[in-house]
Design a protein that fits this description.
Blueprint (H helix, E strand, L loop, with lengths): L1 E6 L3 H10 L7 E7 L2 H11 L3 E5 L7 H11 L4 E6 L4 H10 L3 E4 L4 H21 L9 H10 L5 H8 L9 H20 L5 H4 L6 H7 L3 H41 L11 H8 L3 H12 L3 H19 L4 H7 L5 H12 L3 H7 L8
Parallel strand pairs: 1-2, 1-3, 3-4, 4-5
C-alpha cells in the first residue's frame, strides 16, 4: 500500500480529494494532510509518503518551495502539483524541480485517481529496476538517513538497504553495498573534519573488505560496527555546533514570528538561510535539540504572544491573528483551540486583565 500526503490550504479542495476518492479500492492510502507548506514538510519527514499532492500557493511555504525541499531531501517521493494558474513559468519551474505531474484546478476525482494510478505504476516499474546492482542503493538517500540517524536506527537502516539479500546472500552485491556505506560514512565524518580511516573499527582496504563479505554474519556485524562508529563520531563532534545553530534560529524566530505569508515572511526556508544550513538539516537538528519541530516552535511563540494580546488588550481576535503572523483569522482560531483547548474568545473571558477606558 503506497502512502499519499496532501498539502492544500483550501479546505474544500482538501475535503474533495479526501472524500471523493475510494481509497479502500486502490493500492494507495491517504496517510496525512496539512493546510500549509511548513506544517506539511515536518509531517512528510515523519510519515515519509510515496506520493505528495501539493497546491502551488499556500501560506508559510508555497508548493514549489515545498517540492524543491522534498526532492532535495527525499528524492524518492513522487509529486503532483495542483494549480489554479495556467502559467508556463509555474509549469517550467515544476518540471525543473522534478515534479511528476502538474494539474490545473479544478481537478475531478476521476482525473486525480487516474494520475495517482499512473504514478503508482511508475513506482512499481522503478522498484523492478532496483533488482539490478547498479540501482540497488540510492547513495544520496542513504547519506541523508545516516546524517540524522541514531544508533537505535542502525538495524533498520541496514535492513532497508540489504533487503534484496535477505534470502540470497551474494558477495558481489555485498561488496557494492559496503562501498556505498563507506562513501556515505566518509562524507559524514569529513563534515566534522575527521578521517573515516581513523575512526573505522577495521581497515578499509580492498583486501580487508573482501574478507568481511565472505559470510552473511561477518558482513552484517562489520556494517553495524562501522555505522555505530560513524554515528558516535558525528554526535561527539557536532552537538556544540548544533546548539549554537538552534540559539541563532530561535533568536530569528522570536524576532520575526509576526511576519505571515508572502514575500519576506518567516519560514523554515528563510530561517535555514539565516543560520546557514539546509532546510532539511535545520529541521532535523531542531527536533533533535529541542524535542519539537520548527512549525511547532513557531506556532508556540505566536500563540504565547496571542495570549498576551488577548489578556492585556482589547484588540479584536482577527487583528491579533494578523499581529502574530496568522494570515487567516479562522485558521488562527482553529490552531489556538487545538493547542490551548479553548477558543480565543473563551480564553479572553477566563483570564483576568486590566480595564480599558474608551
Amino acid at each position: 500500500m503506497y502512502k499519499v500526503f496532501l498539502a492544500e490550504d483550501e479546505i474544500v479542495v482538501r475535503e474533495g480529494i479526501r472524500n471523493n476518492i475510494p481509497w479502500e479500492q486502490t493500492s494507495y492510502s491517504l496517510a496525512g494532510e496539512a493546510p500549509d507548506g511548513e506544517m506539511a514538510l515536518s509531517m512528510i519527514q515523519e510519515i515519509k509518503p510515496d506520493i505528495l499532492i501539493t497546491d502551488i500557493r499556500m501560506p508559510f511555504m508555497d508548493g514549489l518551495t515545498l517540492s524543491r525541499i522534498v526532492k532535495e531531501t527525499m528524492p524518492w517521493i513522487k509529486i503532483i502539483i495542483l494549480s489554479g494558474h495556467d502559467e508556463f513559468e509555474y509549469a517550467k519551474e515544476a518540471i525543473s524541480i522534478g515534479v511528476e505531474e502538474y494539474l490545473l484546478k479544478p481537478v475531478s476525482s476521476q482525473d486525480m485517481r487516474k494520475t495517482l494510478d499512473k504514478i503508482v505504476k511508475r513506482i512499481d516499474d522503478e522498484k523492478k529496476k532496483l533488482l539490478s546492482i547498479e540501482d540497488l542503493i540510492e547513495s544520496d538517500m542513504f547519506l541523508t538517513r545516516l546524517r540524522y540517524a541514531s544508533k537505535k536506527d542502525i538495524d533498520r537502516i541496514i535492513g532497508e538497504y540489504t533487503g534484496t539479500m535477505e534470502n540470497n546472500f551474494d558477495e558481489m552485491t555485498a561488496y557494492f553495498i559496503f562501498g556505498e556505506v563507506i562513501m556515505a560514512s566518509s562524507k559524514i565524518v569529513e563534515e566534522s573534519d575527521g578521517d573515516i580511516n581513523e575512526i573505522a573499527p577495521f581497515k578499509l582496504d580492498k583486501k580487508e573488505i573482501r574478507s568481511l563479505i565472505s559470510s552473511r554474519e561477518i558482513f552484517y556485524e562489520k556494517l553495524k560496527s562501522l555505522l555505530a562508529a560513524v554515528i558516535e563520531y558525528r554526535d561527539s563532534h557536532t552537538d556544540s555546533r548544533y546548539r549554537s545553530v538552534i540559539v541563532k534560529a530561535k533568536e530569528y524566530i522570536n524576532k520575526n514570528f509576526a511576519s505571515g505569508g508572502g514575500v519576506g515572511s518567516i519560514s523554515l526556508y528563510s530561517t535555514a538561510s539565516y543560520v546557514g544550513i539546509s532546510p532539511n538539516h535545520l529541521s532535523a537538528v531542531f527536533v533533535k535539540e529541542t524535542g519539537e519541530n520548527f512549525i511547532e516552535y513557531l506556532t508556540k511563540i505566536r500563540l504565547e504572544k496571542a495570549k498576551l494580546l488577548l489578556q492585556n488588550t482589547d484588540m479584536k481576535s482577527s487583528d491579533i491573528a494578523y499581529e502574530t503572523g496568522f494570515n487567516d483569522p479562522h485558521y488562527f482560531s482553529h490552531i489556538f483551540k487545538k493547542n490551548v483547548g479553548i477558543s480565543p474568545k473563551e480564553y479572553r473571558l477566563t483570564v483576568s486583565r486590566p480595564s480599558f477606558q474608551s
